[in-house]
Specification:
Blueprint lengths: L18 E3 H7 L4 E9 L8 E13 L2 E10 L5
Parallel strand pairs: 1-4
Antiparallel strand pairs: 2-3, 3-4
């Protein structure tokens, strides 16, 4: 659950990035902040590079377990 809403997510143990779609942050009302160390990725859109300049902390729960993780915010066209 995120903000008292059931939310489906993908947990990929082979990934080294925590990312969240910009549209998702807007819909969930998450606070976005400037990224401390902006970087580029190449695999998220059909353009050569995407620079990640924002991040947000996502607090979540799975049953009784509660935690939070910083996710880099990206304008995704992937599903």
């Amino acid at each position: 659950m995120i903000n008292q809403q059931i939310f489906y997510l993908i947990i990929d143990s082979d990934s080294c990035d925590n990312i969240i779609g910009k549209e998702t942050t807007i819909k969930l009302g998450l606070n976005i902040e400037k990224h401390l160390e902006p970087y580029t990725i190449c695999w998220i859109k059909e353009v050569p590079k995407v620079t990640l300049t924002e991040r947000c902390k996502v607090s979540f729960s799975i049953g009784k377990y509660r935690d939070g993780v910083y996710c880099d915010v990206v304008d995704m066209n992937a599903c």
